[in-house]
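User: My advisor, Dr. K., asked me to get a structural model of this assembly before our group meeting. I'm new to this, so sorry if the format is off. These are the inputs:
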Amino acid sequence: MRTTDVAVIGGGPAGLSAAISAASLGAKVTLIDRNDRLGGQLIKQTHMFFGSQKQHASVRGVDISGILEEQLSKYKDNVEVLLNATVLGLYEDGVVTIEQGEEKYFKIKPKAMVIATGASEKVLPFPNNDLPGIYGAGAVQTLMNVYGVAPGDRALMVGAGNIGLIVSYQLMQAGVKVAAIIDAAPKIGGYLVHASKIRRMGVPIYTSYTVKEAIGKDSLEKAVIVQLDEKWQPVPGTERELDVDVMCISIGLSPLAELLWQADCEMKYVPELGGYVPARDEEYQTTVKGIYVAGDVSGVEEASAAMVEGQLAGLCAAKNLGFTSPDFEARRQDCIDQLNTLRSGPVGAKIRAGLEKLLG
Amino acid sequence: MLEKTGIPTEEQLKEVTPSKERLSRGPVAIIECFQEIPCNPCYTSCSTGAIKELVDINEKPEVDFDKCNGCGICISNCPGLAIFVVDESYSEDKALIKLPYEFLPLPEKGDMVKALDRSGQVVGQAEVVKVVNSKAQDRTPVIWIAVDKELSMRVRNIEMGV
Ligand SMILES: Cc1cc2nc3c(=O)[nH]c(=O)nc-3n(C[C@H](O)[C@H](O)[C@H](O)COP(=O)(O)OP(=O)(O)OC[C@H]3O[C@@H](n4cnc5c(N)ncnc54)[C@H](O)[C@@H]3O)c2cc1C
Ligand code: SF4
Ligand code: SF4
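Assistant: The format is fine. Below is the predicted structure of the whole assembly, which you can bring to the meeting.
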């Protein structure tokens, strides 16, 4: 059976960073992604990122992906990249089963692994939510920014978190009119600078609003929205009909944790982190020895944090296999410091509360 | 309220607006970033030291209006597109505004365009004076527009057409 030191499952910002740092200590790394290219969510992020220089702030997400791939290529002698390769199962004996393309099916036995599978979009229940024209916001972003296809003419965005705000802006860049952005919460959840830049394009943002129903024969023709009171109950008589042929749902992500369940990692329910997340220690090792996590699968956050978590998990996974470098301790500490800084402000309060619950 | 509508309040704007005297002296940066978020490219991109060091990355940026020369480098480096440069010394009756604009088609020098306020309402007309779109802007072009002086603190966006 094929072997490797560290298998990294998922090639988004977390997985790429984990692969780079594990390889930098000299470990043999196998990086596996089900897509046909590396980068995960980054490949559709045409906007500039926040953070500091260490997390490539002010660089566009898609360009950050290129920077990470370039760094990875420095270690090509000890890194193997498997694309179009989906990890189907993790077994108790530490075997990973992989399907590559349509017919290749094989197993790898790594000494350690970093699971960085990211997160998936939550769905919103309302009448007719399966009409064509209703998408996840991330799916629409892929359609536009990876494939260059506009989803329609006039859109309603449901959710005023960062993803909802950013995808609204990118819809407008693609020439799609955005009729409104609504959010059930009484306040805008995303960064206010994003909200302001969309507002000055003339797009109204309605807080304390939700979708009552979608209307359409073969595809979406109208959306009915309704105001919510302080108890989040619909206020009769406040319904409004919007003529839209696209509705984007962006009400949050939940960790793609199937592989962690299979591997029998202890999972905890922490709503602040997006749902069920793996219990883990400071080195991002789960309760199953040798299985590490990083990025959105370990708690839905941001690419900036995902990269640093990946670096940390990759370093520690390699170190615990006996690989090291003179600056290991300094690099490990730098990662921990960066994460603390990113999470230290008011917008990090939710993540801090979630981590408090997770780590106790 | 900013948290509900995306539009900053008069009080918030007052806090980040230079004095009339400073505005009349020449170009100066106005940073409309009112939330503590983990972000600092404004500070790291400014080479004159006009943006106070963000010791904690979550601090809100603050401009030293005496050090700022209005160069506009920070505009394209801000991922929030929250920085504008205003120059009330531009002419007798017009002010110059430098703003970020990431839409196609780009306007051209000499074009007349619609001038929008922070809610996207058309409040007047603007003449495009310059389009800065070199490698340094990294695909966030900076548009220089001339507007009536009394609109200098209201206009924050443009739309093609008149
Ligand atoms: C619209 C939008 C805007 C955003 N804007 C920002 C921003 O401005 N700044 C910021 O910091 N963050 C932003 N984010 C968040 C950021 O994209 C994510 O936090 C980040 O991508 C998480 O990284 P990750 O590596 O954990 O997961 P992902 O990027 O999701 O990568 C996971 C990878 O795992 C692969 N995978 C999953 N399961 C398997 C399997 N079984 N086998 C093989 N491969 C698998 C997937 O194909 C994918 O490539 C944004 C997100 C969205 C959707
Ligand atoms: S306009 Fe120039 S000098 Fe003024 S804050 Fe921005 S980068 Fe610094
Ligand atoms: S770069 Fe822009 S968004 Fe970031 S802190 Fe500075 S002004 Fe705010």
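One thing worth pointing out at the meeting: Residues A 9-15, 32-35, 40-42, 45, 47, 49-50, 86-87, 116-118, 138, 141, 162-163, 166-167, 256, 295-297, 301-304, 306 surround flavin-adenine dinucleotide (ligand 1) (CB under 6 Å).

User: Perfect, thanks a lot.
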